[in-house]
Amino acid sequence: MFTDGLRPNELFRERSPYFPGLVEKEKRKKRLAEMREKGDDIGPSRKTLKRNSMKHSACQQKVVIDCSFDDYMTDKDITFLTQQLQHSYAANRRAENPLQLYVCGMRGRTKQRLDSIGDYKGWDVFKEERDYNEVFPKEDIVYLSSESANILDQLDDRKVYVIGGLVDHNHHKGLCHRLAEEKGIAHAQLPIGQFLHLKSRKVLTINHVFEILLRFTETKDWQTSFLAVLPQRKGVSVIEEVTETRNNGSEPNHAVLEKRKCETNEQNIEPKEDPDTR
Length: 278
Prior knowledge:
43% of the residues lie in helices and 11% in strands. It is an alpha/beta fold. Keywords: Methyltransferase, S-adenosyl-L-methionine, Transferase.
C-alpha cells in the first residue's frame, strides 16, 4: 500500500518496487543530467529522432547493406556483422537528413541474430528478405568493391549503392566483386587513394563505408568525409597535392591522378570486421 502525504521523491521510492519502469526512467534522467553538466554530447532528443526519419529526409540517396552471405560466415562473424549494422543505423538516425537505408538478403542466422536485438523490429530501415537485385533494377545498382577498376567520383541519387555485408574477407577476398560481375552489376571503389595515404593495407568496416557515404551527401567532399569517419589508428594522412588543388581551384595534374588510381587499386578497402573489435 502507498502512504499518503509523502513528498514526491519519497512517494517515488515507495512506489518504485511496484513499478520497475519508474526506476529506469529516473536513472536515465539522472544520467542525462550528469552528462549535460559535464558538457558531454548526449545526442539528439527523441523528438529530433522522430523528425529525422527517412520519410522526412531531404536526402533520397539509396544505400543497401547486402546481408546475403550467411553461408560464408561463422556465428562470430555474424555477431560482428550485426554490430556494424547497429552502428550504421545509429549514424543514420542521428543525421539531419538520413540516407534511404535498405537491409537486403535478410535470412537465416543473420536475421535470427537481428531479431534477437530488442529494438531491431522498430528500426527506421527498409528490411528485405529478397536480394538487392530483386528489389532494384539492375541498371540502377552500383556495388562497392575494392577490386573494382572503377573509381567512384560522385554519388547519384538515381543509383543504388550496395555495401557487402560480409565479414572476414581474408577467407573470401574479392567475392563481392566476383558476384557483382557474374550478375552483370556495375561496381566501383571509394576514391580513398586519391585523397589519403594509408600506412598499411587496412580495411574498412561496413559502418565506416556507410558513414563515409552519409558524410559525403552532407559535405560533397570526399576528403572531408574520409577524415571525419576513419579512425586515427588507421594511420591516415592527407595527400597534399589534392589539398592544394582544392584550395587554389586549379585542375590537378592528369599523370598524378592516374598514379593515384593505380595506388588505390592496391589498397583493400572492402568492408570487413575491424581487427580491433575482436
